[in-house]
Amino acid sequence: MIVSSSRILTVSAMALMCGVSATSRFSSNAEAMIAALDVRAVGAGLNEPAVLAQYLAQVAHESGRFMWDEEVWGPTAAQARYETRTDLGNTSVIDGDGKLFKGRTSIMVTGGDNYRRFRDWCRALFPDVPDFEAEPHRILDDPWEGLAPIWFWETNDLNRYARRGDIEMVTKTINGGLNGYADRLALYPRCALVLLGYNPDAVASFQRAVRMTVVDGIAGPMTRAAMHGALSELPHWFLSETGVVLAGDDPAPAQMPTSAPEALAAIRGVLSRYDLSLTAKGA
């Protein structure tokens, strides 16, 4: 078993996972993700390290490594077809619904039905939630932007696949196929290693630590399975009000804010206390 000390999930840690610089755009989107985890990680099961690694890898891919939170509208030929996508809750006539309900947030919430479903999910947790059907652009306001991928993950029960390390089924549920699968596979070990306390490319160091027969520095199926096993052995974490990831198999339920302004104030308080440093081990 790999023993991991308590740590803080930071913007710099997420930049390491993604292999990018923490630009202002990246930092803003990453901060929204971290703050939303602070509010909803326990309720969504994302306090489980094995689940969190899967979640971060998938959302990192979907958002272009947390660089994009809004679909760039042309419209392209594919985007034009969204105008009449009644299966997504848009109308059957060309009236601007496609652009109005275009992909937004790091999970690219798309279509009128999904905006309504996300609104209703938020209203079950918080009062004073905007009407994202009437004002879809407000989904990019805090705290809603960071909560959208958690809503998608939770309502599609992706934990059933993440808990068994099934990246393929997580991908198919999110994407409808296996588009970008190679990139998702590449991101997963980076996220897993950072959560385990290694540098994101220290695959060989991890392989030696868990005494794998082959130490080749390649994160193939057996190595990914070993990472999943190591993460699964860790105690459940939860993000406390100070932003620290604490260990504990049976943590006390998180105290939910009672209104959207309180939620936003709590999130801003968390972000103001983040330690953006990261100490990692491994080559």
Please render the helix and strand layout as text:
Blueprint: E1 7-8, H1 11-18, H2 24-44, H3 49-62, H4 77-80, H5 97-100, H6 112-125, H7 144-155, H8 159-162, H9 167-175, H10 181-195, H11 203-209, H12 221-233, E2 237-239, E3 244-247, H13 260-272
Antiparallel strand pairs: 1-3, 2-3
Helix pairs in contact: 1-2, 1-10, 2-7, 2-13, 3-10, 3-12, 10-12
Main features:
single chain; 283 residues; mainly alpha; 2 domains; three-stranded antiparallel sheet; 13 helices; 3% strand; elongated; disordered C terminus
Short description:
With 283 residues, the protein is mostly helical.
Give a verbal description of the structure.
The chain is mainly alpha-helical and 283 residues long. It has two domains: 7-68 and 166-272, no CATH class; 77-147, no CATH class. 49% of the residues lie in helices and 3% in strands. It contains 13 helices and three strands. The chain has helices spanning 11-18, 24-44, 49-62, 77-80, 97-100, 112-125, 144-155, 159-162, 167-175, 181-195, 203-209, 221-233, 260-272, and strands spanning 7-8, 237-239, 244-247. Strands 1-3-2 form a three-stranded antiparallel beta sheet. Strand 2 and strand 3 (244-247) form a beta hairpin. Helix 1 crosses helix 10 (181-195). It is elongated. The two termini are 20 Å apart.
Helix content: 40-55%
Q: Tell me the total number of β-strands.
A: 3
Helix/strand class: mainly alpha
Rg value = 19 Å
Give the strand content. Answer: under 5%
Form type: elongated
Please list the strands of the largest sheet in the order they lie side by side: 1-3-2
Unreliable sequence segments: 1-7, 239-259, 270-283
SSE series:
EHHHHHHHHHHHHEEH
Mean pLDDT: 83
Largest beta-sheet characterization: 3 strands, antiparallel
| Number of H/I helices | 13
Our measurement of the CA-to-CA distance between the termini, rounded to an integer number of angstroms, reads 20 Å
How many domains in all?
A: 2
